[in-house]
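Pipeline run #58 for the internal structure catalog. This entry was flagged by the ingest filter as a single-chain record with no existing model, so it goes straight to prediction. Upstream metadata was stripped on purpose; only the residue string is passed forward. Reviewer on rotation: M.T. Logging verbosity set to normal.
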Amino acid sequence: MAILGPSGCGKSTLLNLLSGFLRPQSGHITIDGVPVVPEHPVLGYVFQSPNLFPWLSVLENVRFGLRMNRRGSTQEQRAAAQHFLRLVGLEEQAHEPPHRLSGGQRQRVALARSLALEPRLLLMDEPFAALDALTRASLNDELLRIWSGWGKTVLFITHDIDEAIYLADRVLVLGLPPTGITAEVAIDLPRPRDQRGTRANPLFAQLREQLSEEIAKVMTSNQPVT
């Protein structure tokens, strides 16, 4: 699922509530009946910035969550870290410091670090927004490849309508406070998807127009769209 909305509508706040980093002022949030906390065992979080530890190698950055959660022996943790680095195409960079990697590679490390915890729900807060268009497209494809074999739920925040359509099965549009969700659009494009074929599908253009109209409504009104 992708979430679209203008700046200030609460997209990142929503993820911080779902992750347990923030507490709701009213009501409660549960996953499988369990209240959410930052240490919730089924959650992973990929931030806008990779937030890697510069003094640790790439492999030790991926291993960090496993070490903090005491999952397995040191040998098992390092084997798992290697596996997830292989999954994101960075096995050869395992012993490099983060500063020697490109921006796209650092974000791959951040993704591998979250995947290593094997979450059932992965929260992604505009993880590719700061990257150039070619790198962003490549990481979109990489995410779809990993997701197709992983079979878990991803909640993806983005400002980019095309990115939301390309990645998601459903797109939610958030309105400006206090309106909340103003639209939900099903993305019926076939899978597997690829940049050329999927974007050339006439349905892709129709969905872009539909979501553009929903965003335009949000920008001109604080009332929920019915």
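catalog note: Residues 52-118 form one domain.
catalog note: Helices lie at 11-19, 58-68, 74-87, 103-115, 133-150, 161-167, 195-200, 202-220.
status: ready for reviewer M.T.
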